[in-house]
Design brief:
21% strand, Alpha-Beta Plaits, alpha+beta, 161 residues
Length: 161
């Protein structure tokens, strides 16, 4: 992979000046290379990895991994159905897989009922969907290569009466 991409993937906040020093390039050359990668669609966007357990957010977002079995369509295979599925706003990720199921779909909702309704009312009834298996994420330890720290818990023993 391109060295600039490797640096940005580890930390997108690295400045062009810092990157130029690391790569023995000029800041102008680094900035030009980044602009080209953005223009070509190699760099899609920059984002932060957020540990939701550490925020005091009132939302109770629930995330689920859904295995989806499909019947591929003539002349388009899985692509057409995958596109219909990944266009739903609840879907955050969608992957074509090898193995016992065809798509792995990541869905987020306000609560478990919202995700369940998405599966039962939108995903499962679609033509071409042969079956689904839903796995709810209970806790995240590591995401996109980053270890997520958990909030400190009191080390005091619970009082039992």
């Amino acid at each position: 992979m391109n060295e600039i991409l490797e640096i940005l993937e580890r930390d997108a906040r690295v400045t062009t000046e810092e990157m130029a020093k690391m790569l023995k390039m000029t800041p102008k050359a680094v900035a030009s290379a980044i602009k080209k990668l953005e223009k070509d669609g190699v760099i899609v966007k920059y984002k932060a990895v957020i540990n939701r357990e550490m925020t005091k957010d009132e939302r109770t977002d629930v995330r689920a991994l859904i295995e989806v079995k499909l019947t591929p369509q003539k002349n388009v295979g899985f692509d057409h159905l995958a596109e219909r599925i990944y266009r739903f706003p609840e879907v955050t990720n969608c992957y074509l897989m090898s193995g016992t199921y065809d798509l792995l779909v990541v869905v987020e909702g306000r609560d478990i009922h919202t995700v369940s309704r998405f599966v039962s009312e939108k995903l499962s009834p679609m033509d071409g969907v042969r079956g689904t298996v839903t796995h709810f994420i209970l806790k995240k330890y590591k995401e996109d290569g980053d270890i997520l720290k958990t909030p400190e818990r009191s080390k005091r023993p619970a009082i039992v009466l």
